[in-house]
Structure of Putative thymidine phosphorylase:
Amino acid sequence: MTDTLKLFPAGIDTYRQPVVYMHEDCHICRAEGFAAQTPVRIDLRNRWVIATLNVVERGGWLDIDKAALSASAWSALAAQTGDVARFSHPEPPASTSSIRAKAYGARLTRPDFAAIVGDTLDNRLSDLDLAAFITACAGDRLNATETVALTQAMQAAGETLDWGGRVILDKHCVGGLPGNRTTPLVVAIVAAAGETIPKTSSRAITSPAGTADTMEVMAPVRLDERDLRRVVEAEGGCVIWGGALNLSPADDHFIRIERPLDFDSTGQLVASVLSKKAAAGASHVLIDMPVGPTAKVRSPEAGAALSARLRHVGEAIGLRLAIHLSDGTAPVGRGIGPALEAADVLAVLRREANAPPDLRARALDLAGQLLDLAPGAVAGSGRARAEALLDGGAAETKFLAICAAQGGFREPDEAPQRIEIRASSEGTVSAIDNRVIARIAKLAGAPRQKTAGVRLGVRLGDRVSKGQPLYEIHAATSGEAEWARTYAERHEDALVVTEESR
């Protein structure tokens, strides 16, 4: 009897959670007392990982003398089919005492947060442990000092890009507003102005598209640090997926737990955003904060509290920070979903007559404020510079050059399935629910299906007649289109049309 088993890939994606599958009659399960959800340490050559055990019953798909690994566990071990690994009980995570203390109201220090972050990255903490930590920090339970300490611990656990003391501009949107795809436009304008803006972006987690998803429609975004530096040195900017760079890696683990809980936590949001900005080497950062009843930030009071915390932490970690409060009452642009948002971005860059005016205006506002933030800038001159660079075609030229440097530009595709949702009455569009519209786009297949999503046909304040198209569902398959249509028909409040009294 040994403590080893042969490995093979389970072919199951568990996102960032390493999982191991063993037969219930496996000699290791019996001898070690392993049961479902037990953390198990797996050693292979000079690598190890702690994985959560899932038990396969008799008559299942797994042989008794083998262990199957999820995609993340397989990758962490650099395993090959037939490798023999050793299995054991891991040491109990030391940070659980800090999590327990926080749950009872204690204030944590940077070493406490560093231990939690370290155990998270080593997969020593179970999902229950992480959920307890997220819950204990929810709401306003992290004060300003703790937020600084958590931000620093998260940044220190990953890589930090060093740009040799250069001025590095960056921007971030706190989210919650479908279609608000200003980043590619801002990067193109700011880089065309001669500034440096290496933008690392995220993929969607619960939204119909993240910046990386939209950019990937037009150019490769999975670049390593060497290629990132090559692109930035050549063109002054980039728009890439940050997941390949190990910048504040604990954040992805926290988000995986935080999203299903749907908790609003000022401290954790600030730590998430600013740890990644600092890790990317930014020196000057603009935060776009949409405020609206169905946005992530729902009131001016919440916006003020979040702005104050962002400024405090930004100053503490050496970032020069500016906040842009924007209108979050309705989606921005016409497209919601990767390819549809990419089409909007290109329409603005190409100065097309039908380009979404609200997306253009927001991009110019943000690019102008970011240019004003740069050292030596003439205060208030940024927006005019941004407008000249966009209208003169320099931003389009720069964007295409960035795409070429990242691996080549391509035009967005279009969805083969389309369904119009029409107004049931005459009146004025008085409200658009960001969350419902985003949900319809996701049910249509976004962001997994790049061409899926929603294209808006009307804006707030528009007059519509009965039977007029309000928006169009785009999908890759008829099944996904019908799935989204069914939900849309049950939620007519996605777009509220108010009939005028006679």
